[in-house]
Amino acid sequence: MNDSSWGAPPQAGQAGYWGPTERGPVQGAAPAGPAYDAPEAQQTRPMPIVPDGPAYGGDQDDDRGAARTGGPLFRDEDHGAFPGGNGAGFPAEEHGRLPDERHGGRTGAQPHATPHHDFSYVPQSDPSYVPQNPEPMPDAQPQPAPAPAPQKKSAGRDLGAAIGVGVGLGVVIVASLFVVKAVFVGVVAVAVVVGLWELTSRLQERKQIKAPLVPLAVGGAAMVVAGYVRGAEGAWVAMALTALAVLVWRMTEPPEGYLRDVTAGVFAAFYVPFLATFVAMMLTADDGPWRVLTFLPLTVVSDTGAYAVGWRFGTHKLAPRISPGKTREGLFGAVSFAMVAGALCLQFLIDDGTWWQGLLLGLAVAASATLGDLGESMIKRDLGIKDMGTLLPGHGGIMDRLDSLLPTAPVVWLLLVLFVGSG
């Protein structure tokens, strides 16, 4: 309220006048207009007589909305008096000053004027006082958050399913090796076809690369059989024919993306069936089943050593941008396990083999298996996937098991030919 709202003072004795007289304060009806603004007015603030009653709060809150005979003259009236004050709704230190004077205004405010303040103090000595939404008091010293419990290292896969699937595959391979060699060749051909299907499917899903599966599957199976029947010469011829079939097959579709698709097809033909052909070529020797049985366990032992040592002691990353889970300690474990297994295999399983040849073979297997694993990890990272498939529980897909076997097959075949011959 500004100064222009203040009117002239009423005459003494006027009805409704509040103010001092010769006989003291006189109470009457409230003036119709604003109160006077006389400099000689007393510095006190007479209040209308209000009947005693409980302050609002607790069970009395429901009466706030009830009708009253002429509402409160001041906002202060609804909040009770301050303890130790002057009984007029203001603290003791404010006694003797009118509301406007406390706020830098003028004296002599009219009784029904609304001051620019809102005291909300309610004495807690009142039995009807109930705090409304009390704020929680902060702790003097906040308790530190408990440290998280250390988590155990996780293998990242279902080890039970992985072991069960591995044992089952091992039984099939061993049975086919020592019963009929041709059955094992068929197992290799089936694995190649499934691997090609997984690879081409992921390429099309993630990169829209349409490598023709039909010529790849037929040529891949023929490549494995040709390697077993005709050796390395037959494998190369089958590889060339498969690449030519991929080029011709892709001509039946629009030319957009032709170079991209045939390049992926030739890569797939070399990566999966051609490298697998060296396993069939090992089988052609007189001790072929034992050579294959040396190749497979050495690769598996290398992977197992890398996994076990890296999971338990691995701290230094081997290739974090390609495969963050591989560590240098894991590589050391792969080399150690493979060299010991190679010495045992060459000494006791391969005719004319020696333990030191086995050490070299184990070292080469550990290197090629690790590079093959990193190579497929690079492909999967480029495709944005974790596994190539889901056919083998605990392992992923067929290609997730062939990743280290495929590049290791030509290394083992070549070193065994150098150490003990091709017969």
TrEMBL record:
Alphabetized UniProt keyword annotations: Cell membrane, Lipid biosynthesis, Lipid metabolism, Membrane, Nucleotidyltransferase, Phospholipid biosynthesis, Phospholipid metabolism, Transferase, Transmembrane, Transmembrane helix
EC code: 2.7.7.41
InterPro entries: PC_trans
UniProt membrane topology term: Multi-pass membrane protein
Biased composition annotated in UniProt, kind: Polar residues: 122-131
Bias type Low complexity, positions: 28-41
Listed PANTHER family: PHOSPHATIDATE CYTIDYLYLTRANSFERASE
Name by which UniProt lists this protein: Phosphatidate cytidylyltransferase
Organism field: Streptomyces galbus
